[in-house]
Amino acid sequence: MVYHHGVGGPPSHNARPHQMGHHGMEGLDMLDPLTSSSMTTLAPMGETAPPHHQLHGYGAMNHVMNHHHHPGGLGHAPPAHLGHPAAALHPDTDTDPRELEAFAERFKQRRIKLGVTQADVGKALANLKLPGVGALSQSTICRFESLTLSHNNMIALKPILQAWLEEAEAQAKNKRRDPDAPSVLPAGEKKRKRTSIAAPEKRSLEAYFAVQPRPSGEKIAAIAEKLDLKKNVVRVWFCNQRQKQKRMKFAAQH
DNA sequence: ATGCATGAGCG
DNA sequence: GCTCATGCATA
């Protein structure tokens, strides 16, 4: 495992086309699913993805579309595409959820075999020098392995991690060892403190979410006040909750 | 492994 | 203000 410091790759990000927002109802007064109703613990998870999804990027390229895609995702832009309305073909070996799932598992297994940690992989990615690809965090590697990323995110990361794996295994054969081993922690910066939403409040939020996953700003404010939480905390909580529903694990893909 | 957060990009 | 990709902090 090659350590190295000074990482901190600030890759670029993405964007995505539209969003939909609407829903003609607004129960502004029924703001208490827990106490006034009889729902305490429901199980959300009901995706019906509207027409969206995104594409993009890590760095500078890499585009991934909804479904369909070509092999070899990164480092170049795949040529043309079809615009056929009737081109609903192939279980696409690259976007196929099962293919991704299989790869993720293989990846993890081989990674462990190499004696490399998730964090190591993340940093090592920067050494691959792939165009537009910098380091990634342990979190991301972990999520990739456990499929807790969006389908598109998985597709975009797969070629990158695959490249790393091949490289790592190739070097492992040559029994290479790096003579460098500096690792001085930057030290100094301030730590961010993480808000922790208490269980009762979390249960309330879940209940609200089950009723309205996309509350208006005003509604969020009302909920925030009722639960005695900052409005932004509540807003972010809803955003994260929605994002969770879109992870491969939850998305009804298998 | 996962909770809460940031920031880019877009309407 | 949202979605999405991603990460720090933490359990």
Automatic annotation (TrEMBL):
It is found in: Nucleus. Residues 92-169 form the POU-specific domain. This is POU domain protein. Coiled coil: none annotated. GO terms for cellular component: nucleus. GO terms for biological process: cell development; generation of neurons; positive regulation of transcription by RNA polymerase II. One of its GO terms (molecular function) is DNA-binding transcription factor activity, RNA polymerase II-specific. The keyword Lyase does not apply. Residues 1-25, 172-198 are annotated as: Disordered. The keyword Transcription regulation applies. Belongs to the POU transcription factor family. Keywords: DNA-binding, Homeobox, Nucleus, Transcription, Transcription regulation. Residues 190-249 bind DNA. It comes from the Eukaryota. Its main location: nucleus. Residues 188-248 form the Homeobox domain.
